[in-house]
């Protein structure tokens, strides 16, 4: 089994060279017998933990104060490892690093705890859209989800697998997680999840819902590397629709009591306004499907999917934001079952709509690293399947593959070469002020106060 050889080597008892140290008068018996300094960790010191020995203290000792919560991302990722320069990559995702777990639950080893620490440090942000007021889920992801994971091993397996995948995506070599270990953890996560679904224990429904969400990120390995396969998006959509089916089983009151309801929040869509934002050629594609065509019974499902696609165009007009990311991520959950069946049957109309959705997936918003390269893999797969005769309807998705700049992709989607919307509140305030300042001397103060950037005690200028 991949990863077994690495895990078993952790059982080897390390040799520590004796070196000068200050006496520890409250250390454990094992450290005293070896005459080595004990770090007095509770419930077991680090030396006994590594050597897998029972740690016993002779007298009650005052616990050591917890480390400062402002430890930076360059701190050591696990006991016994020196900090590596590649851990600086983690700093782009989190400002602070919490203290690592001090205990190992039954059935879990040191590598598991290292991966859990990385999840609470960095990987949880992979599903964070804290810029959306209705969905401030950071605490839910770091606290509630982990609580459910300790009670439901299949969710813990999914968290560890996602962390292993994230570590290798970032290239954090000092965490000591190999590619084979990543594959091992991922296979275990899917296996235990399937067993939990088959058992259908009502007590696990909340954990199953969270696990379904995390698996949508974990399963994106099918779009990259040696494991990639054409049109993997057709299977990926099934995972997203599974989230809605689990919600129907749980019922909303129980979902809110579980403390994880914010994870499945979907912003409302103004479908009438969305319809006005759709490209005319996509609507013409539907109008050209006549009675007798094999796709004619699917026109209504196609139109429903296009309306929700239009909500992405409508949101994009306001700028590239966390709300746009949330609409992109939740789009598959909006698709009617008839549309998904048509896509899985590889009906041309459904594939064309999916190709345009994949253009939005190109946007680099937030920390959804698991969306990376999906479009580059799937848009050519759709084009190759449909053939050159569909090139006219696939012109925009194919053109998007040549663009690396979010602004250029937005201009292509909106067919507006002058589009240049800001992406942050600060930039919005600055640009709005610059537009009005020529006609209104007080415009700068008005706009900066509107965005909360003006201090009335400092005369004349924004802070």
Automatic annotation (TrEMBL):
Composition bias, Low complexity: 63-85
A GO molecular-function descriptor: DNA-binding transcription activator activity, RNA polymerase II-specific
Organism domain of life: Eukaryota
Domain annotation Zn(2)-C6 fungal-type: ranges: 27-57
Region feature Disordered, mapped onto this chain: 63-86
Record-linked InterPro entries: Fun_TF, Sterol_Uptake_Regulator, Zn2-C6_fun-type_DNA-bd_sf, Zn2Cys6_DnaBD
Record keywords, A-Z: Nucleus
Protein name: Zn(2)-C6 fungal-type domain-containing protein
């Amino acid at each position: 089994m991949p990863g077994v050889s690495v895990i078993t080597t952790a059982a080897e008892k390390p040799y520590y060279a004796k070196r000068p140290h200050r006496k520890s008068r409250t250390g454990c018996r094992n450290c005293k017998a070896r005459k080595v300094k004990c770090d007095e960790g509770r419930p077991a010191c680090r030396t006994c933990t590594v050597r897998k020995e029972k740690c016993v203290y002779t007298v009650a000792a005052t616990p050591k104060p917890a480390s400062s919560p402002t430890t930076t991302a360059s701190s050591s990722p696990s006991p016994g490892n020196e900090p590596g320069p590649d851990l600086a990559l983690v700093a782009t995702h989190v400002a602070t690093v919490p203290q690592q777990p001090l205990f190992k639950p039954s059935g879990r080893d040191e590598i598991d705890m290292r991966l859990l620490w990385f999840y609470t440090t960095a990987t949880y942000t992979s599903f964070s859209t804290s810029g959306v007021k209705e969905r401030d889920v950071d605490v839910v992801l770091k606290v509630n989800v982990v609580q459910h994971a300790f009670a439901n091993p299949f969710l813990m397996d999914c968290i560890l697998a996602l962390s292993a995948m994230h570590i290798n995506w970032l290239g954090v070599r000092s965490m000591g997680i190999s590619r084979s270990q990543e594959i091992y953890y991922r296979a275990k996560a899917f296996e235990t999840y399937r067993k939990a679904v088959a058992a259908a224990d009502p007590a696990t429904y909340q954990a199953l819902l969270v696990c379904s969400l995390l698996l949508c990120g974990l399963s994106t390995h099918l779009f990259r590397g040696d494991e990639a396969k054409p049109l993997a998006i057709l299977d990926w959509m099934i995972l997203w629709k599974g989230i809605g089916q689990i919600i129907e089983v749980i019922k909303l009151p129980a979902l809110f009591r579980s403390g994880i309801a914010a994870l499945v929040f979907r912003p409302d869509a103004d479908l009438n306004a969305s319809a006005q934002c759709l490209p005319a050629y996509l609507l013409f594609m539907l109008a050209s499907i006549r009675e007798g065509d094999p796709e004619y019974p699917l026109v209504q499902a196609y139109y429903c999917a296009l309306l929700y696609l239009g909500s992405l165009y409508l949101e994009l007009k306001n700028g590239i934001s966390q709300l746009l990311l949330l609409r992109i991520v939740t789009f598959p959950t909006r698709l009617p079952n008839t549309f998904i069946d048509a896509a899985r049957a590889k009906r041309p109309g459904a594939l064309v709509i999916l190709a345009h959705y994949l253009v939005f997936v190109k946007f680099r918003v937030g920390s959804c690293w698991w969306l990376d390269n999906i479009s580059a893999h799937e848009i050519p797969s759709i084009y190759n399947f449909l053939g050159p005769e569909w090139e006219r309807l696939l012109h925009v998705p194919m053109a998007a593959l040549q663009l690396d700049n979010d602004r250029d992709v937005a201009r292509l989607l909106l067919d507006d070469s002058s589009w240049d919307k800001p992406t942050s509140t600060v930039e919005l305030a600055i640009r709005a002020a610059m537009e009005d300042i020529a006609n209104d001397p007080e415009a700068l103060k008005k706009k900066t106060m509107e965005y909360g950037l003006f201090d009335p005690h400092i005369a004349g200028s924004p802070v």
